[in-house]
């Protein structure tokens, strides 16, 4: 087992580094492989892969419904039934063609992936908004330091902290805008 080497802490104290065994090193390598290679490539390729899988479900489902021995679907009916596979509408009487069986499996997986991704995206945005509401309080945001914005900033600067958002760096009012006052802890914000 490798020897733990002491490291310097910010306070000057020496602390021992945790011993790393082969399993820990392997887990670190896998995590770094996932973070820097697989995940980034998946994020780049995801739209194309999902589009190809969705089109494949439509094509395989249409072919499968046209070959279904118990029903006599034409192209448009088969295509419509293939679309309903995404809403878990793939109930048919056996025997089921292989192409239709593949489409019946892939369509709900794609639908579930899209639903879970949407929930995560909405939850992440809601968490961001809740964090802003929870931790950023008692301030006024002034967008653009025009004549009205400057008057508003000066009027409330004595009562509340003012955050100014200005897109024009050459605006002369930025130089004379109210400066942050020291907070209760004594640090300037």
Question: Can you tag this structure with a few keywords?
Answer:
189 residues; mainly alpha; Helix Hairpins; two-stranded antiparallel sheet; two-stranded parallel sheet; 4 helices; 4 strands; 7% strand; disordered C terminus
Describe the structure.
With 189 residues, the chain is mainly α. α1 runs antiparallel to α2 and α1 packs across α3. It has two domains: 115 residues, Helix Hairpins (Orthogonal Bundle), CATH 1.10.287; 43 residues, no CATH class. The radius of gyration is 30 Å and the shape is elongated. It has four helices and four strands; from the N terminus they run ββαααβαβ. The strands form two sheets. Strands 1-2 form a two-stranded antiparallel sheet. Strands 3-4 form a two-stranded parallel ribbon. It starts with 5 loop residues before the first strand and ends in a 24-residue tail after the last strand. Helix content is 54%, strand content 7%.
């Amino acid at each position: 087992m490798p020897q733990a080497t002491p490291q310097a802490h910010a306070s000057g104290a020496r602390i021992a580094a945790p011993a790393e065994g082969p399993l820990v090193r392997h887990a670190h390598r896998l995590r770094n492989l996932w973070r820097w290679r697989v995940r980034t490539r998946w994020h780049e390729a995801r739209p194309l892969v999902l589009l190809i899988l969705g089109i494949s479900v439509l094509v395989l489902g249409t072919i499968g419904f046209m070959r279904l021995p118990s029903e006599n679907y034409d192209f448009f009916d088969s295509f419509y039934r293939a679309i309903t596979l995404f809403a878990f509408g793939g109930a048919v009487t056996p025997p089921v063609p292989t192409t239709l069986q593949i489409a019946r499996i892939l369509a709900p997986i794609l639908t579930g992936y899209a639903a879970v991704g949407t929930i995560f995206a909405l939850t992440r945005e809601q968490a961001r908004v809740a964090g802003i509401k929870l931790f950023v309080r008692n301030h006024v945001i002034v967008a653009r330091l025009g004549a009205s914005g400057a008057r508003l900033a000066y009027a409330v600067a004595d009562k509340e902290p003012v955050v100014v958002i200005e897109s024009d760096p050459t605006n002369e009012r930025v130089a004379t805008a109210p400066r942050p006052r020291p907070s209760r802890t004594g640090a300037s914000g």
